[in-house]
Specification:
The structure holds 2 protein chains of 2 kinds.
Chain A (H helix, E strand, L loop, with lengths): L1 H5 L2 H12 L26 H4 L3 H14 L3 H21 L7 H14 L10 H26 L4 H6 L7 H19 L3 H12 L4 H8 L3 H22 L1
Helix pairs in contact in A: 2-4, 4-5, 5-6, 5-7, 6-7, 10-11, 10-12
Chain B lengths: L5 H10 L10 H20 L4 H10 L1 H24 L13 H13 L3 H4 L8 H28 L5 H20 L9 H30 L13
Classes of the chains: A mainly alpha, B mainly alpha.
Chain lengths: 237, 230
């Protein structure tokens, strides 16, 4: 049932095309028969396409379908990649707390580099190399961070804030309440644009993915939201 | 935190999916860029004294070896840069242009001895050498721009290395094309200026291209929770 879900019509036709080209054959020994019972001289066969498993071919076909815009095949492929990425990242020595970060890094890399994938090559090999490199990137980032920072929650909590001003806290809370009320009055799409781009400080590209809207539409929503907010605060002041 | 699970993240990526044109093989893309360089060479040849250039280059072994070295470096560095621009390319591609680059440097280095071996030779003055620098740097601008745009279409993960090898290709191509307008024999001052010009091109390419690649190649800084899973 799950297999059927993974094979959209476009994926099925891609698998058949790969099969016609002989890439669905089982792994072969490099000594090739010449046809009349005699064994010919050693000939190096193209190792990569001939040794690929059926799973790898299916994933290649799914990726080829994704390159053509097949969302169902793409989503199924990415779902299938998650456990593979976790295994590879674990082998690279990524701490368990950061495995999910590597998974998202790799998924995003696959998304942005999908035009570079050649279905004639192993998808598994492509994924493995990207995962290893993203895992190394993450380990370096974490290493750099831990070299600069120390984990001292008690010192952090007991550190006196020199700029602490109880009156200001009250003003900030009031301003925050006003902002929340004003945001609640915005239309949903405009509010979402403000939340993603301003409050969460996401990039336009990431926010567009989350909101499932084009970057242009998101920019328009944000512009209108800011205009409306300015109007609301101008009226109140 | 925006995403509650990988599923939601994947759903977002799938919703963002648009059909893409599969990239050509790196070799073909390198040939395209080298074709543009060749077209510029043909255009420059129309304004240059090709016979004089030919006689000058073939007269001394170090000069034609240097031309072969710079041409080979441009070709192999371009191929290496396009290979490195793929996310799964091995780093060893960066070694491809090294042998010819060494030939280029060694043959050019022989020119340093020219004023001592052949004192009657016409070597470039400081002003003429400055023109060489301007030519190499100016010609590198369009070649770099084209190369960066073409490399950016792929997805390099070794940003600095890809940019540096691309810079080497650009510098070597510009230095090769300089021969059309270089009616002097190589000498120490001239070579020093060439080295400075090539170093400028590689350094600027490395800094600029790496920055351009970073805008496309770096995923969200997930360690800061910009794209979180919780």
């Amino acid at each position: 049932m799950a297999e059927k879900k993974l094979m959209t019509p476009r994926v099925q036709s891609n698998v058949m095309a790969l099969s016609r080209r002989g890439w669905l054959l089982p792994p072969q020994f490099p000594v090739m028969a010449t046809g009349n019972g005699r064994v010919g001289k050693l000939r190096m066969v193209k190792a990569e396409p001939r040794n690929r498993s059926a799973d790898d071919l299916r994933r290649s076909a799914q990726m080829a379908a994704a390159q053509a815009g097949d969302r169902a095949a793409y989503e199924a492929l990415l779902q299938e990649c998650v456990p593979l990425i976790k295994v590879i990242a674990g082998r690279q020595g990524v701490p368990s707390g950061h495995i999910d970060d590597v998974v998202q890094d790799v998924l995003l890399t696959i998304h942005r580099a999908r035009q570079t994938y050649d279905p004639a090559r192993s998808f598994g090999g492509w994924l493995r190399i990207i995962t290893e490199r993203r895992a190394i990137d993450l380990l370096r980032r974490v290493g750099r961070q831990s070299a600069r920072e120390i984990h001292a929650p008690l010192a952090f909590e007991s550190h006196a804030d020199e700029n602490a001003d109880p009156a200001r806290l009250g003003r900030d809370a009031a301003a925050s309440n006003r902002m929340q009320t004003a945001l609640a009055m915005l239309p949903e799409r405009q509010r979402e644009a403000v939340e993603l781009l301003v409050l969460q400080e996401q990039s336009l590209a990431d926010a567009a993915i989350v909101a499932r809207r084009s970057k242009g539409a998101l920019k328009v929503n944000l512009h209108r939201a800011l205009k409306a907010l300015r109007g609301m605060f101008a009226e109140k002041d | 935190m925006t995403f509650t699970s990988h599923d939601q993240f994947i759903h977002g990526l799938a919703a963002d999916l648009k059909p893409v044109k599969r990239l050509q093989r790196p070799l073909l893309r390198a040939v395209t860029w080298l074709g543009v360089v060749a077209a510029i060479a043909v255009a420059l040849a129309a304004f240059a004294d090709v016979n004089a250039m030919w006689q000058r280059i073939t007269a001394a072994p170090d000069l034609w070896l240097a031309v072969i070295g710079s041409t080979g470096t441009a070709i192999l560095a371009a191929i290496a840069a396009f290979e490195l621009s793929l996310p799964d390319a091995p780093r060893t591609w960066a070694l491809l242009p090294l042998p010819v680059a060494i030939l280029w440097i060694a043959a050019s280095g022989l020119g340093c001895l020219r004023t001592w071996i052949a004192p009657q030779t016409h070597v470039a003055t400081l002003g003429e050498a400055r023109d060489c620098l301007i030519f190499i740097v100016a010609l590198s601008v369009p070649l770099s721009a084209l190369l960066i745009v073409m490399l950016r279409r792929a997805f390099p993960l070794y940003l600095g290395l890809t940019a540096a090898v691309g810079g080497l290709a650009v510098a070597a191509a510009a230095a090769t094309l300089l021969n059309f307008f270089h009616p002097y024999d190589a000498a120490a001052t001239d070579l020093a200026v060439h080295v400075v010009a090539v170093a400028i091109v590689i350094a600027v390419n490395s800094a600029l291209a790496a920055r351009v690649f970073r805008t496309t190649s770096r995923p969200g800084d997930v360690t800061t929770g910009r794209i979180g899973t919780n």
